[in-house]
Amino acid sequence: MKEIYTINKVKYGKDKKVKIEYSLGENEYTISSINPPKPELLLALWNLAEDVNEICDLHIDENKVLDYIQIIGVSLSEGENGTGVTISGLKKLSKYSSFLVVNTPHLFDGTENEDQLIPFKTLNKVKDLLRECNLYLNGEYGDGYQMDLFPDKKDEKKLKKEKKQLASQM
Q1: Rounded CA separation 152/158 (Å)
Q2: Chain centroid to CA 158: how far?
Q3: How far apart are CA 70 and CA 91, in angstroms?
């Protein structure tokens, strides 16, 4: 029987490690693993880029969002307003070879306050990510291939092509 974990935070960064903070019952755990994630876990993260663009009013053309925003993590909490979600990403800067850290506001699924309510489509994407994290914690890893979240300039075209290929398979 597979365990169902409560995910508190998930990160995937430059070091290609999956880091998940989770709880099971009253116990809390953190795993930082080099076991490669399935492509679906990475896609679940990357699919949140459009939401960050919209929530944070970045106004990036929807066809170019994945070129400019890389999602690096999602943090979750439970409270009186339901589940709270903050999505963290990096926005590529056009003038500099650096990134701007972008965090969404902490939005909730159970609030009546419209300016704190997480969009329904974003919530569904977060649920997809949580499902993939649970699969990962239950030992369902990728095939050993890991995509580079922060490619060198020469590898950017290759990464864009790989992302599009993976997205078309979903």
Answers
A1: 10
A2: 21
A3: 7
What does the DSSP 8-state code read for residue 144?
A: S
- The CA-atom distances, in angstroms, between 122 and each of 26, 56, 98 are 28, 13, 27
For residue 124, being part of any structural domain is answered with yes
Report if residue 1 sits inside a domain.
no
Residues 5 and 24 sit within 8 Å (Cβ to Cβ): yes
pLDDT in tens, 125-161: 999 999 999 999 998 888 764 444 444 444 555 556 6
Task: Give the β-pairing of 82-92 and 69-79.
Answer: antiparallel
The domain in which residue 57 lies consists of 6-169
Q: How many domains does the chain contain in total?
A: 1
Q: Which residue, 39, 30, 32, is CA-closest to 13?
A: 32
Verdict on whether the full-model pTM lies above 0.85: no
> Residue 84 to residues 66, 74, 78: CA-CA distances in angstroms?
24, 10, 6
CA distances from 73 to 17, 30, 46 (A): 12, 14, 10
